[in-house]
Write a structure and sequence with these properties.
It is a single chain. By secondary structure, this protein is mainly beta. It contains no helices and eleven strands. The protein has strands at residues 2-6, 9-12, 17-24, 32-38, 45-50, 57-59, 67-72, 77-82, 91-98, 111-112, 116-121. The strands form two sheets. Strands 2, 4, 5, 6, 9, 10 and 11 form a seven-stranded mixed β-sheet that branches. A four-stranded antiparallel β-sheet has the order 1-3-8-7, with no helix packed on it. A hairpin with a 6-residue loop joins strand 4 and strand 5. It is globular, with a radius of gyration of 13 Å.
Length: 122
């Protein structure tokens, strides 16, 4: 599966952004999907995940209550709605696909998009 992330940009603290990830190739609904982020000088970290059917979403504690992941299997897309953004959310955000049921480690994701930069100014 090929993944293409988009929607990043510059936003002020407290603002919102919606990231999108378009998938092509093998059956999108066969994969759990996730979003990761990597800030300069830091390791890539899990942000949010959603199961094959979209029935269950789960989040890193740092974004719980502010971010929401969703998917549309008919359109082969997954979204990350980011609200109440903070400067510490600044990072390159990656979407990824996994054959595992509840993946949250980056090693459990086999397919990655190219990343989209989110910058939150204070």
């Amino acid at each position: 599966v090929q993944l293409q992330a988009s929607g990043g940009g510059l936003v002020q603290a407290g603002g919102s952004l919606r990231l999108s990830c378009a998938a092509s190739g093998r059956t999108f609904s066969s994969y759990a999907m996730g979003w990761f982020r990597q800030a300069p000088g830091k390791e890539r970290e899990f942000v949010a995940g959603i199961t094959f059917s979209g029935g269950t979403a789960y989040y890193a504690d740092s974004v719980k209550g502010r971010f929401a992941i969703s998917r549309d299997n008919a359109k082969n897309t997954v979204h990350l709605q980011m609200n109440s953004l903070k400067p510490e959310d600044t990072a390159v955000y990656y979407c990824a696909a996994s054959s595992f049921a509840w993946p949250n480690a980056h090693t459990e994701y086999a397919y990655w998009g190219q990343g989209t930069l989110v910058t939150v100014s204070s």
